[in-house]
């Protein structure tokens, strides 16, 4: 099939690459000419395992090409995918300006029947607006259909996710468009949900909001664990073995981030209020997520005090999660900013997100290290803020020798409590009654006793 993919971000670039790898002829379009030139030269604008090889191979085999000329891309294709960004606007809603601008241009360029498919995450009713906008901008009467085909790719594993998806959702009010899109995906052998436009749009938001709910739920259970001497990993394991619950997205930590969950949860909440409905549960999900980093930081301030000037802190992880260089809405970045705001000097390392982080954080009181061990040198404490696998296997005796103080704040539960504590570290994690938490409880007891004896 002949396809055009507009937008070469995470969704568009991975989509274009995999579609071409399935044997389709694909043109990727972007207004950013520097980006297009880089991609053509095999240099990926994002870190995504496996992507470069697929792009380079398919360019070489002439199934995949890139251009900044949208009309050229559209003229080539039977199916046009809109894959541009829908960031959060000031009101919490999705900013649709890029999607609508592309729709207008598609209208101006259409000369024969095509299916226009929105892959960007857009609120209920957007595809109807896209249809109208295309219709209004047609230069001559042309038949076309619109469809919603949301993607469920995770950054860091999007290549794998697209090849082995759990399901494909295709929403359209046109049986012809549904048939054409089904042809593109049937070979995957996984379920295809055919539905109306609006249901497809909502499936995407409901899925992301539900996953975010799972995370906020487990993060609240973690708070109970810490106080009630239980262990969150064990509780999550015990829950996850129930097939009705499932083990995924039950990893407690300092909260979810990234370019999707925070904006999509906020946008769905906004949709609910637009529909005169207060989605209370979702409001709680957002509040809990915001609270998680402060719960984590509370242990830091109780242990080290609120004034961190004179302290040198080591930070492992800046990306919003492991296996990506993306720092958009990264909780790690927010925590780094708070620690710096409290006067600390920071040494930081992330396997992929150093360049992006430097652009956002600058160099004021932050030095960027070459590896995890450089971060540790003479640091008064070590922070783990992103779940990169390599942080879970750091050499603990080397860590202890390098740190000025054997103190670890683990915001992603990457280390084994017993092992770390047996080696003499003071350790804080999330949802675990560690020796660090015991120390704070002891301090609190002394304080309570002092209060009772009036000698504080
Ligand atoms: C998410 C969804 O998982 C994808 O299905 C969806 O397509 C994508 O958003 C999107 O809308 O484009 P992504 O943002 O790449 O994908 O990342 P996730 O792997 O879902 O992680 C999101 C955040 O939740 C990260 O900060 C991660 O650290 C956190 N998380 C995840 C937890 O704190 N605990 C968990 O158990 C799982």
Automatic annotation (TrEMBL):
Keywords: NAD, Oxidoreductase
InterPro entries linked to this entry: 6-PGluconate_DH-like_C_sf, NAD(P)-bd_dom_sf, UDP-Glc/GDP-Man, UDP-Glc/GDP-Man_DH_C, UDP-Glc/GDP-Man_DH_C_sf, UDP-Glc/GDP-Man_DH_dimer, UDP-Glc/GDP-Man_DH_N, UDPglc_DH_bac
Record has Oxidoreductase as a keyword: yes
Positions annotated to bind NAD(+): 30, 35, 86, 121, 155, 263, 328
Pfam families cross-referenced by the UniProt entry: UDPG_MGDP_dh, UDPG_MGDP_dh_C, UDPG_MGDP_dh_N
Positions with a binding annotation for substrate: 152-155, 204, 249-253, 257, 321
Domain UDP-glucose/GDP-mannose dehydrogenase C-terminal: 314-417
Catalysis performed (reactions): UDP-alpha-D-glucose + 2 NAD(+) + H2O = UDP-alpha-D-glucuronate + 2 NADH + 3 H(+)
Pathway: Nucleotide-sugar biosynthesis; UDP-alpha-D-glucuronate biosynthesis; UDP-alpha-D-glucuronate from UDP-alpha-D-glucose: step 1/1
Catalytic machinery residues: 260
Keyword NAD: yes
GO terms of biological process kind: polysaccharide biosynthetic process; UDP-glucuronate biosynthetic process
E.C. designation(s): 1.1.1.22
Molecular-function GO term, any one: UDP-glucose 6-dehydrogenase activity
Xref: NCBIfam families: NDP-sugDHase
PANTHER family in the record: UDP-GLUCOSE 6-DEHYDROGENASE TUAD
Family of the protein in this entry: Belongs to the UDP-glucose/GDP-mannose dehydrogenase family.
Name listed for the protein in its UniProt record: UDP-glucose 6-dehydrogenase
Organism: candidate division WWE3 bacterium RIFOXYA2_FULL_46_9
